[in-house]
Specification:
By secondary structure, the chain is an alpha+beta fold. Helices cover about 35% and strands about 35% of the residues. The protein is globular. It starts with a helix and ends with a strand.
Length: about 140
Amino acid sequence: MKRYLLFLFLFFHNYIYIYSNGRIGKFLNNRPCLILHTTGAKTNLERKNVLVFLKEDNEICIVASKGGSDTNPGWYHNLKKYPECEVQIGREKFKAVSREIFEDEKNEWWNKMDYMNNGGYSAYQRRTERKIPVLILNIS
């Protein structure tokens, strides 16, 4: 029941953030959220996802955790096929290009994101055998 309520809450938050065009929902539990606009890898249709992020200078870090699921989220596959995307933070929109990061760079960003999320990403990693991808969106 608890997991179902969390799902409903997140669904409602994402809906409000997207359909208010960024006016409502910029933060979730005091963590900044963005709206990631991608092109569907299979459909070529626009897709929108709300994600927690960390921004430093012109780099935005996002984690493809999918709650510790055994599969990567759809938006990850979209960015692998079409790295050009749009990022919306509140009402501001930016063009960006994504890249997956590895090794030392991944560890550095992972630690920052995990700290910001009170160890949530480490908990997700323990739930799955896949290595959770970390991506950087370079905004222009």
